[in-house]
Specification:
This protein is mostly beta strands and about 220 residues long. It is built from 1 helix and 9 strands, in the order αβββββββββ. The radius of gyration is 25 Å and the shape is elongated.
Length: about 220
């Protein structure tokens, strides 16, 4: 009888302690889902800088964000965004004999990707105002639209020879500002360094810096 009483006491203790442990992680927001809008500045990087020169322009991204905690203050961050990037490229043409510049063509590129970030976020302990975070990882993107137009025209045409996939390395930092117990506002900055070819002509790589604005629920 004593053994049975001890067993039931241990079982009841487990049932009461386990929910309180789960409630602790719930209050720490072990899983957060949110919406983001990220203005960005994008540019193309060419290995042959004597022929091609890229000017950065403003673009934007929007979509969903998910932070999944796997240890205290350690989160796997992912989501799904539609990222639209703009850039101007000046291409120099040279005389065949004198090798001096003869003319310059300016094109405006508009590239749009569906991107999935795969990164780790390290967050500080949450205070009265919120918490800070650092982020490191990768983005995998699939092109959904690639357009170009000359500077003196208004009509975009499909880019010839642009690549479908894009991979990038992301480094970022920011803060989550507590609005209520179940809502936080996110502000941050992210540098995304592309390391795959964007298109065949000139073999450039696409990079951008974004301002991260969002709401986590």
């Amino acid at each position: 009888m004593t053994k049975k009483i001890a067993f039931f006491s241990l079982l009841l203790s487990f049932l009461f302690v386990s929910p309180s442990h789960a409630q602790y992680y719930y209050n720490e927001r072990n899983l957060s889902l949110g919406l983001v809008f990220n203005p960005n500045i994008g540019w193309l990087s060419y290995s042959d800088s004597d022929v091609y020169k890229s000017d950065a322009k403003f673009g934007y991204a929007y979509g969903l964000l998910a932070d999944i905690g796997f240890a205290r203050n350690y989160f796997f961050s992912t989501g799904l965004t539609i990222n639209t990037l703009y850039t101007d490229v000046n291409s120099m043409m040279y005389h065949a004999v004198s090798s001096t510049p003869s003319a310059t063509d300016t094109k405006n590129f508009r590239l749009q990707y569906v991107e999935v970030p795969l990164s780790i976020k390290l967050k500080t302990n949450e205070g009265n105002l919120g918490r800070f975070y650092g982020q490191f990882g990768f983005t995998a993107g699939v092109k959904v639209s690639g357009k170009e137009k000359f500077d003196n025209t208004n009509k975009y045409n499909t880019i010839s020879g642009d690549d479908i996939f894009r991979l990038g390395l992301i480094i970022g930092t920011g803060a989550e500002w507590r609005v209520s117990n179940s809502l936080s506002a996110v502000t941050g900055v992210t540098y995304n360094n592309g390391f795959t070819r964007t298109m065949k002509e000139g073999s450039p790589k696409l990079s951008y810096v974004s301002l991260n604005l969002g709401l986590l629920f």
